[in-house]
Design a protein that fits this description.
The structure is a homodimer of 577-residue chains. Chain A has 577 residues and is an alpha+beta fold. Chain A has 3 domains: 214 residues, Bira Bifunctional Protein, Domain 2 (BirA Bifunctional Protein, domain 2, 2-Layer Sandwich), CATH 3.30.930.10; 129 residues, YbaK protein; 97 residues, Rossmann fold (3-Layer(aba) Sandwich), CATH 3.40.50.800. Chain A is built from 16 helices and 31 strands. In chain A, strands 3, 7, 8, 9, 10, 11, 12, 21 and 24 form a 9-stranded mixed sheet that branches. In chain A, strands 16-14-15-17-20 form a 5-stranded mixed sheet. Chain A has a 5-stranded mixed sheet with strand order 28-27-29-30-31, sandwiched between helices. In chain A, strand 25 and strand 26 form a beta hairpin. The radius of gyration of chain A is 29 Å and the shape is globular. About 1% of the residues of chain A have low confidence. Chains A and B meet through strand 1, strand 2, helix 2, strand 3 and strand 4 of A and strand 1, strand 2, helix 2, strand 3 and strand 4 of B.
């Protein structure tokens, strides 16, 4: 394609509304433009990348035996009422009425529509298993749409739904999708990890999230350094001793109160007492469904409120304000501790249970206790896994230490079981002629979100660095002096040869200063740049720049075309000699 | 693909809700299923055809220099308020509110969004011309959605929008699109005609509709049998004498009243008087913005109310009821005529003007006049083109007779001028640095509707007959005795070879009776069926059936593969000898 014939409105400056790198770079590279909050136009370069992602997803879904269909965005309320989600879904579901005042929604997902289709068209176990997918526009009225394509209100998803005669079959389909997702994200050229998203109501792991690894990711991922275990830090199950016993051992002295004037945070207290955070125990006070609750975690750990809620079966868990802390402990906040607490349920993380001794707040201003020992100096009603995983925790599967990465969720495979088929009375006849509910799975990929995630993972201060499989073009030809006949003829020659070889190539044919051309090229992030300048050409060379490594290489003009083709398509088969 | 692995829920019976052939056949062939009125699931076979249509459209748009983008379905009300269409569009526009109570609509078209994009991103004449298109889901809340994909509420369109610096450029873009549409519909394998949809506010023809020809089409099309003129019968311009002078000439006798007891219709009167309909003049009485109006057309012609309205500049044109006819003419309806009419404006079609004499109603029960002559026996205030074209009318361009076809509108090219750019203040700077409004064109293709139109044009009593370019598969392999090892091995051999040759092939691998297999194959309409039966194989043959012609041919087994490849892909290039 010719640069001048494409709408690529690059921006010099970061747009003020863009908070994250991928959003900034997609705006700056002229890939997308906002229509309304969370709603975007894909411009030509953005759509090229979207199409490439969709193509790879489609190929691997077909390869895994899924059949492509296309369901509508408009969904009648009746179907959602059957599963109860019309009421449950809340404001994220965009609703509207048609001219006859009938209720519809814009699908954020298609479990109801697909289950309705399958219950009408699939009658016998002989027609099973079946896996139907689509690549389609979805709608979700996010309360705070942001980060460009990362969290939009209208976005492109691949969603697949499998239907099986029994759980065993459903697990096979799940495994197929799990494997297909590995192939998809590998082929997209992304570093990613599949993490356990939830563990087994049905037995075994019934849900995995696929995360693209990026420093800027919203999610923390704990991955075993030895086995293939990986989980969201908030969901990783931690066993007793996972975080080690902490420092200190041998003979434990008696409880000792020390002054810690104005030292409130873990860092301040441990520095002041010449200790380390893992020697402290933090005491956090919550109102749990209205009742006072103290949660103890090691100084270097973070309380995981989801785990606390699940343990106690409470729905409202609110951190206590200063007034409540004072009323419940008798001391100001910042100095809370478990010693002497009364009429408060105290729960502790497993890592606290194994600490020989610890430093804790004394429930009075400017005071802490040293050598506090659970059981001896304070009681704990229950010990349980109550915290997020951190680097070095023991893998719950093999015991090796885990490392922590950050990631962006781009895919999710989920075992639905019979949740939807029971709600919608979707049955088939088994081999004995008896009615059975379909056992279902659902499998999503955020097709448009992948673009943002890919950029979060692949960029530098100059712009995007596309992985080849999803790059809008493979080669960017940049004639520096566009007034020079020699430069332009050579550029066009190379361009023509690339097009004939089927290599997606963009040629910079604008009359712009060299600096503008180079900046836009780095911003666009095409993997290889071919720079043609008078001087180099005079010496018989073109310059080949690898956008990722920044490496520049002089290639003889007459060898340039073969070299580029080999670079993109791999070595040509040699004729038999 | 294997038949057993695809969801193709064929139906033996016509579904009761389907009124037209294409809807019936798409339901019966398991291509689509209804979700709600005018809203459908595309099942695997339906989606395959949709994708093929979209691919051809996309290739020709790219070839014509248009750039693909993707705009959102959700559009903010503010943009539609700028053009006034938020108010004008009425109930066909599906509207909704987001969680913050802001108004949105689901786009039935994208003039507002694209004009907003271009006014923000295109600043200079140097960036022009530009043509942006998308293939995307559209929404229109039809009052009576029907005919399956023909008139749905959610459907797939290709819409393109061109922006030019001046009218001359806009005309060039229009011409490019007009030519591209010819290529698209030719490549789709459809018989079609481009018809003038409206004539020149801007000069020249500024709108063309592309019609797929089919007996069942809703629109009538008049096409010249000599030149390339074609127009909707309602819009075709007819010149004086276009319909000939009608029979009768020489000396004209004086007005003569005759009895025509109970003969009211043209057919009844002409049969009774041993005349032909072209010898009669029909007198139709209307209330035109409340005032009485008589319109005269030849007995074999139909009044075109659009032309009448346009001539008189009236908005309300209502056929008079029996009471009004009696009051205005003094006679019962069925016997109206122009002779003796008072206080009524009388207009006549051009073909009436050239009739030497005619038979007309006498404005009294059971009576007509013979030998009525305009001017002599009755007055006509104005003669003008007031009727639909019929077969044999003279082409307004070259004078040769026109023929009449029926068609289904599948594409529309339209010169918008500055309607939207003025309303939305969308300007660029011209070469003199002055602000100018963009001159726009818009170009639509009903991608999903094309499928229905293709079926209306290509079917027989057994099912669909796909044109090869949009067929879901090129070849349908049907092993008759699926218990026979010889039959199945040969079928699989041919299937494997087709797949390796890149030919889209479906193999019938279900355990069904031969009759079921043959019926489903004819219903699905794949262009070539390869039938493998024990008897033929024993004799060394397979049977090749052409779905369109029904022709069956015996092909030697060992030549079958080469023959099929050549049939689909054309002859192989011969190696140089």
């Amino acid at each position: 394609m010719r640069y001048s014939k494409l709408l690529i409105p690059t921006l010099r400056e970061d747009p003020t509304e863009a908070e994250v790198i991928s959003h900034r770079l997609m705006m700056r590279a002229g890939m997308i433009r906002k229509v309304s909050a969370g709603i975007y136009n894909f411009l030509p370069v953005g759509l090229r990348v979207l199409s490439k992602v969709a193509k790879i997803v489609r190929e691997e879904m077909e390869h895994a035996g899924a059949q492509e269909i296309l369901m509508p965005a408009l969904q009648p309320a009746e179907l959602w009422q059957e599963t109860g989600r019309w009421q449950q879904y809340g404001k994220e579901l965009m609703r509207l009425k048609d001219r006859h005042d009938r209720d519809f929604c814009l699908g954020p997902t298609h479990e109801e529509v697909i289950t309705d289709l399958v219950r009408r068209e699939v009658k016998s176990y002989r027609q099973l298993p079946i896996n139907l997918y689509q690549i389609q526009t979805k709608f979700r009225d996010e309360i705070r749409p942001r980060f460009g394509l990362m969290r939009g209100r209208e976005f492109v998803m691949k969603d697949a739904y499998s239907f099986d005669a029994d759980l065993e079959g459903a697990k096979e389909n799940y495994k197929k999708m799990y494997d297909a997702y590995h192939k998809i994200f590998s082929r997209l050229g992304l570093r990613f990890r599949a993490v356990e998203a939830d563990t087994g109501l049905i037995g075994g792991s019934s849900s995995h999230e696929f995360m693209v690894l990026a420093q800027t990711g919203e999610e923390g991922i704990a991955s075993c350094t030895k086995c293939d275990y990986a989980a969201n830090v908030e969901r990783a199950e931690l066993k007793k001793g996972a975080g080690g016993r902490g420092p200190g051992a041998g003979e434990v002295k008696g409880l000792e109160k020390v002054q810690t004037p104005d030292k409130k945070t873990v860092e301040e207290v441990s520095a002041f007492l010449k200790a380390t955070p893992p020697q402290l125990v933090k005491t956090l006070l919550f109102s749990a469904d209205g009742r006072p609750l103290a949660v103890l975690v090691r100084g270097d750990h973070q309380v995981n409120e989801i785990k606390v809620r699940r343990l106690l079966g409470v729905s409202d868990l609110i951190l206590a304000d200063a007034g409540k802390v004072e009323a419940w402990t008798g001391g100001p906040s910042g100095f809370s501790g478990p010693v002497g607490l009364k009429n408060i349920e105290i729960i502790g993380d497993l890592s606290v249970e194994v600490m020989p001794e610890s430093i804790v707040g004394a429930n009075e201003k400017d005071a802490h206790y040293l050598h506090a020992v659970p059981g001896r100096d304070f009681k704990v009603d229950r010990f349980a896994d109550l915290r997020n995983a951190v680097a070095g925790d023991a893998c719950p599967r093999c015991g090796a230490p885990v490392s922590i990465d950050r990631g962006i969720e781009v895919g999710h495979v989920f075992m639905l079981g019979t949740k939807y088929s029971e709600a919608m009375k979707a049955t088939f006849l088994d081999s004995k002629g008896e009615e059975q509910f379909f056992v279902m799975g659902c499998y999503g990929i955020g097709v448009s979100r992948i673009i943002a995630a890919a950029i979060e993972q692949n960029h530098d201060e100059k712009g995007i660095i596309w992985p080849m499989p999803i790059a809008p073009f493979a080669i960017h030809i940049i004639p520096v002096q566009d007034q020079s006949e020699r430069v332009m003829i050579t550029a066009e020659l190379i361009y023509g040869s690339m097009i004939r070889a089927g290599i997606e190539t963009i040629i910079e044919d604008r009359s712009e200063r060299a600096g503008v051309k180079f900046n836009d090229a780095d911003l666009l992030g095409v993997p290889y740049q071919v720079v043609l300048g008078e001087k180099n050409l005079h010496e018989g060379f073109v310059e080949l720049k690898n956008r990722r490594t920044g490496e520049k290489q002089k290639v003889e003009v007459e060898k340039a075309i073969d070299h580029l083709i080999e670079l993109v398509q791999g070595p040509r088969p040699q004729p038999a000699s």
